[in-house]
Amino acid sequence: MNHTVLITAAMIPAGFFATYIWRALAVVAVTRIDPESDLLLWVRAVSTALVAALVMRMIIAPSGVLATIAVEHRFAAVAIGIGVFYVTSRSTQIATFATVIALALLDLGLG
Amino acid sequence: MGQPAHSDTKQEATAYDWAGMAGGIRAAFSLPGLVMACSFIGFGALIHDVGFPLLAGMATTPLIWALPGQVLFVTMWQSGVALPLIAAAVSLTAVRLLPMTIGVLAQVRLKQASRLPEFLLGHFTAVTIWVLSLTSLRNVPENRQLPWLVGLGTALMVSMMLVVPLGYYLADSLPPTLAAAMVFFTPAFFLLSLFAGAIWRFDYAAIALGCMMLPIARHFAPDFDLLIAGVGGGTLAFIFLRPRRKGLLK
Question: What residues 8-67 of chain A have any CB closer than 8 A to a CB of chain B?
């Protein structure tokens, strides 16, 4: 319990403020900033690459139960998901389910 | 009492009509809401997996309200990374919320109305809200759009916090294949959302470079892998493929 309180207290600066600052800046800036200025485009690229890197880390170096799935199956499931995404004219929803189902089937069928 | 004889149909409203919240709350129970719930169930399984306390994991939902930031906070905390580094990484993934929030607000704010509700909507803005604001607001009257999104955000935030324990406890009782599949919802949804949000070639380059640089960065500086791959990959994409044809964001 104490551990929970400590983490939640740490989360207020390192989680809440770290995140909300950008939302608040957006509210302040919406009346005057151009969403396609070079600064914001750079920001867009960095945040995209950061989330992509996070995904990659969860695929190549997962902790816990995901590590019990063969790495080839993790990559294959993602590839299938991307394929389904384009086949279904870019449906994030269907493709997300397809990725997860593919992972389970690959693991059960070939594992 | 008399209406202006030739009132413009776009006559600017000066106050929000909060009755619009009801429609937004209903919209939370939809397919995008379901996918989001699966991701949060997966997040519950993930925090169980890495040994993060359940209540603190639930608290990330209303405090951070952006799943990439929540996953970063949890995984970096569990690997014992120093708090300022965690804050920097979480903050960097949240920068994407700035243009997103500007886009959402520019669409729904009333120029004459109080600005305080915009700070509230800002806190609710994340990928799902952004997507729904682009697709579901067409039939909502102008002065109800912001309340509609606040209703949607409130309903989603409460529901997502409540499904986290579901994943946390299911992770223990499910066969490993199913438990792993649940955890996999999160990276799958993140990656596909990146593709869904990509407009320019440099968006795709940023995705590819972020993925490719991660293993390299991890090899040389495991503590800074995400920051290096994110800042490095994004900056390279920006330098070489910055879009010249603009006007596509709004």
Answer: 8, 10-27, 29-30, 33, 35-36, 38, 40-66
Domain assignment present for residue A65? The answer is no
The answer to the question of residue A7 being in a domain is yes
* Residue of chain A whose alpha carbon sits nearest to that of B180: A66
pLDDT, tens only, B56-110: 999 999 999 998 899 999 988 998 989 999 999 899 888 878 878 887 898 899 9
* Domain interval for residue A20: 1-33
Give residue-wise pLDDT tens across range B118-167: 999 999 998 778 767 766 787 899 999 999 999 999 999 999 999 999 99
Give domain status of residue A46, yes or no: no
Indicate whether A80 belongs to any domain: no
What are the residues whose beta carbons fall under 8 Å from the beta carbon of A39, sequence distance 6 or more? none
Q: Which long-range contacts (CB under 8 A, 24 or more apart) does B1-6 make?
A: none
Interface residue A100 vs chain B (CB under 8 A): yes
Encode pLDDT of A67-98 as tens digits: 889 999 999 999 999 999 999 998 888 999 99
ipTM of the complex: 0.87
- Our count of domains for chain A comes to 1
